[in-house]
Amino acid sequence: MAGVEVKVEGLSKSFGRANIWSDVSLTLPPGEVSVLLGPSGTGKSVFLKTLIGLLKPEHGSIVIHGTDLVRCSESRLYELRKLFGVLFQDGALFGSMNLYDNIAFPLREHTKKSESEIRHIVAEKMAMVGLTGDERKLPGEISGGMRKRAGLARALVLDPEIILFDEPDSGLDPVRTAYLNQLIIDLNAQTDATFLIVTHDINTAQTVPDNIGMLYRKHLAMFGPREVLLTSEEPVVAQFLNGRRQGPIGMSEEKDTAQAAREMQEAGELAGLPPMKPQLQPSPGVGERKAVGRRRARVQQMLHTLPAAAQQAIRENYAHDPLPDPRPVEPPLQAPPPRTGWRWRSRGPVPGYPPRAPGYGPDADGFDTFDPGYVSDPDRDPRPGPDGPPPPPPGPGRHRP
């Protein structure tokens, strides 16, 4: 199992006259963990359903493995859906089936594997999410956190290249949410699949993803490396990350500008963004995430295009292993090594010769001596260095022919 790039261009979705969002464009990097934030009612879950072809957009494209899911045939779409694993908000387990049969269901439905092969795969996936020994329990007999993990195991059985999480923290207390976040990071290290998480949990957004996007006012306000949003000075970002009432987000919809300004004036000085938390690392013994190196190279290439605050945060995150300067390094200029050899020397006018004429030297130029420290002039010295043929012997009267 390995991650795949998902490229979304100009996606728009409406229900009748109600526009949900328009012109959404983003690229999910292969194998990385991305988070999609946004106020309630902005269409985050609709976006997930559109990605897997359950809803058809009015405009735009979703390209995976060179195929546009929006315009491909039904048979091709059916095959591409097998690339996805989905964890729904409530786990979406069949209440009449025990956990083993719930997790085995996709294998029995979409493959021709034998029951012994299915048994092996189910046991492996249940071990990955910490449910070994709970195979015979019914969904109504377990906690909400266990139902989430069972749903996640079912999402993994077909070895998907893309895993979508629709509010995995829904209904969980902060401690169980923290355990689930660590499980997500560990699974990404083990599978190298591409993850997209829709969440409202600020701690999840701060500690889990490589990339963060935010839906707001029926469009994608931003999407990129996590440091871009977590250092953004946009009022909506500060309000959302701080979980406060003052700001442009209202109870049921966005506030108008005047109302938001009045509230901010009444509140006075408000704290800015919360301090950035370090990203979660895989548990000991799980292994490194392969996406870390790919993300580092990708971020390095785009670093100069990011806001200054994001650049600073990225460099601080890589302080233990600094990012190299993306500008090409030119080698320093070096002086050529000294050239030693016989040198020309003018000994002045030679008695008996006519005055100097152009191109004809009355001065007797000749090899006078060998100077090992002499740097020869390549424009004049035809034989620089001691390896050339020996010079003619010096003597008065010798001149150029």
From TrEMBL:
Keyword terms, alphabetized: ATP-binding, Nucleotide-binding, Transport
UniProt feature, compositional bias: Basic and acidic residues: 319-328
Protein name (database record): ABC transporter ATP-binding protein
Pfam families to which the protein is assigned, alphabetical: ABC_tran (PF00005)
Region of interest: Disordered: 319-401
Keyword Nucleotide-binding among UniProt keywords: yes
CDD domains xref list: ABC_Org_Solvent_Resistant
Annotated Pro residues bias: 329-339, 385-401
Single GO term (MF): ATP binding
Highest taxon, organism lineage: Bacteria
Lipoprotein in keyword set: no
Residue span(s) of domain ABC transporter: 6-242
